[in-house]
Amino acid sequence: MRVMLEGLLSLVEREDQFEVNGRRSTVLGIIPPRIVDERLIGELKMQLMRYLNPAAAEGATPSDYCLDFSKVNYFSTAAIGGMRVFNKVHRELRGSPVALIADSGSRAYQVFEKTRLTSEFNLFYTLEDYKRSIGAG
Length: 137
Description:
The protein is 35% helix and 27% strand. It has 137 residues and is of the alpha/beta class. A 5-stranded mixed sheet has the order 3-4-6-8-9, with helices on both faces. Helix 3 (107-114) links the parallel strand 8 (99-101) and strand 9. The longest helix is centred in the middle third of the chain and has 18 residues, at 77-94.
């Protein structure tokens, strides 16, 4: 469900959430098909970081995150920088990298391979692949 966030349309939507062995996982869908504008990148980064903000999640169970890029056709190197920051904070808080979903034939997957994000993140082709890998499917 897309909601307004501080006057701007949400760029991230929660697609799924489940728990395996006491560890919560949340799948966040990235909505814009093109992520190239600096303002859009800044807003997307801010919205993602809110999920990791301990103050915002006070009393809530921390979660491992998976970013679903299946709707994304193109993104800039600045967007990759934002993903790396999100992943760094996630690793510090959760001890594991962020998972990414991108179809193997997609442009997003090609970019992940060329920029070697596959060595920094856990990459999956489908949500079902991700769920199976953590024992939820």
